[in-house]
Amino acid sequence: MKSDLKVGIALSGGGVRGISHLGVLKGLNEAGIFPTKVSGTSAGAIAGAMYCNGYQPEEVLKIIVETNYFKFMRPAISLTGFLKMNSVGELFKLYLKHNNFSELQIPLTVAATDIKKGKVIYFSEGELIPPILASSCIPGMFDPIVIGDKFFVDGGVLNNLPVEPLEGICDFVIGINCNHLPEESNIRNMKSLIERSVIMSMNYNVYSRKSKCDFFIEAPGLGKYGVFDIKKAPELFQAGYEQALQYIDENPAILELATKKE
């Protein structure tokens, strides 16, 4: 039988680096640790939705590697973004056919930013795919996602580790961040300067919530990977998996959350 403890897992955003979440989930599952509720932002929302729908972490990795995600994007005739994400929804419909939070095997909450009101909105019921698109809509790159009469962009703008939806519901919260920055002795160009600054901002957002987590897992150095570097998917998955194993070994208290054997 399973432990009576309610375990929440919060997954950060981070573009393709979010694939490392799948490796961490694999490591936790092998140790008998399974969430009773998941929350996610951006890439964490995507990984969370697939996992909560019943796909095994390795299955999600296979889908990512074999799917040409970018062919589903379309140019945006707009002053607010270069690309439209709406057509990406067609891709998600292949794997999340029910398109509803209520049909997920594990409850999920997705964070997105209401760009006009400047506040975080948490989605946990109704249609599933539009909130996922909203949560992963990088400002400036993608046209905002319209849900009802509101305009949404990436949840990571205001909350890149949504632990709040787990508070008061879960006995323990595991936070997983995929953006750890290695030290850099030389900033090569403007592009690397901007990318590093953006990740620093994202991590400040994450680390301000670290104290809300009972356990916090962060594979080192993932900030060196580009947001769209999909060729590194297997490497990112393995990095997350290895870090999960190391974390469990160094923090055996987390095994108290594992499934109890009869």
Secondary structure elements and pairings:
Elements: E1 7-11, H1 19-30, E2 37-41, H2 43-52, H3 57-66, E3 74-75, E4 81-84, H4 88-95, E5 108-114, E6 119-123, H5 129-135, E7 140-142, E8 145-147, E9 150-154, E10 172-177, H6 190-207, E11 215-218, H7 233-250
Parallel strand pairs: 1-2, 1-10, 2-5, 4-7, 10-11
Antiparallel strand pairs: 3-4, 5-6, 5-9, 8-9
What's the number of extended β-strand segments? Answer: 11
The fourth-level CATH homologous superfamily is Cytosolic phospholipase A2 catalytic domain
Number of domains: 1
Return the structural class. alpha/beta
Uncertain residue ranges: none
Tell me the major beta sheet: 8 strands, mixed
Q: What's the overall geometry?
A: globular
Estimate percent helicity: 25-40%
